[in-house]
Amino acid sequence: MKIPMIAPSVLASDFANIQKEVEMLNQSEADWIHVDVMDGRFVPNISFGIPVTEAIRRHAHKPLDVHLMIEEPERYVEDFFEAGAAVITVHYEACRHLHRNIQQIKALDCKAGVALNPHTPVALLEDIIGDLDLVLIMSVNPGFGGQTFIPNTLKKIEQMREIIVDANATALIEVDGGVNLENARDLIEAGADVLVAGSFVFKSENPMETIWSLKSV
């Protein structure tokens, strides 16, 4: 079985000690650092924005995987790229002109992703899959950490993998929400490439060991 990429979400970290948390991730087996940006409009929560992303970048030795859970993401894409994003993911549900949004991100020489909420069918990405570097499948309703994994996500991952293979595309499949050691193997077998874990990592007794365990399933 393939080795997954792990992208711990700093949304669940100790913000009062963000430098220490990021330095821990630098030393861990994590591949990316997942940055969840929420605006209180697209999702019913507010997290952090450009200044905090810049602060994380100053200490990070690994790529920032920035997930924009915001309305009108096109207004902020360039700012987040300049703040240090290596991957920028926008939500299908927030983009009226998705192809244009993706081209905007790629024009910055940045990897471009599209996120799908639990109710959004993966088939809606068939016409654009060849332009994407990443598809983020939400396995909980976006907005808050620590939620319970939605089982139907496995079916969506399998469907997304089939679309990618049929199109001879190269997009990675990322899964975000309720990821833990109980479902990680099933996610990978279904076709996931990148596992996002927040509370499961940062609330554990030994986050570095937890990341290693996810990497080793």
TrEMBL record:
Pathway: Carbohydrate degradation. Binds 1 divalent metal cation per subunit. GO terms for biological process: pentose catabolic process; pentose-phosphate shunt. Gene3D superfamilies: Aldolase class I (3.20.20.70). The active site is at 36 (proton acceptor), 176 (proton donor). A divalent metal cation binds at residues 34, 36, 67, 176. One of its GO terms (molecular function) is metal ion binding. It catalyses: D-ribulose 5-phosphate = D-xylulose 5-phosphate. GO terms for cellular component: cytoplasm. Substrate binds at residues 9, 67, 143-146, 176-178, 198-199. Its cofactor is Fe(2+); Co(2+); Zn(2+); Mn(2+). Keywords: Carbohydrate metabolism, Cobalt, Isomerase, Manganese, Metal-binding, Zinc. Its EC number is 5.1.3.1. Transmembrane segments: none annotated. Signal peptide: none annotated. Belongs to the ribulose-phosphate 3-epimerase family. HAMAP family: RPE (MF_02227). Catalyzes the reversible epimerization of D-ribulose 5-phosphate to D-xylulose 5-phosphate. This is Ribulose-phosphate 3-epimerase. It comes from Fulvivirga sedimenti. The gene is rpe.
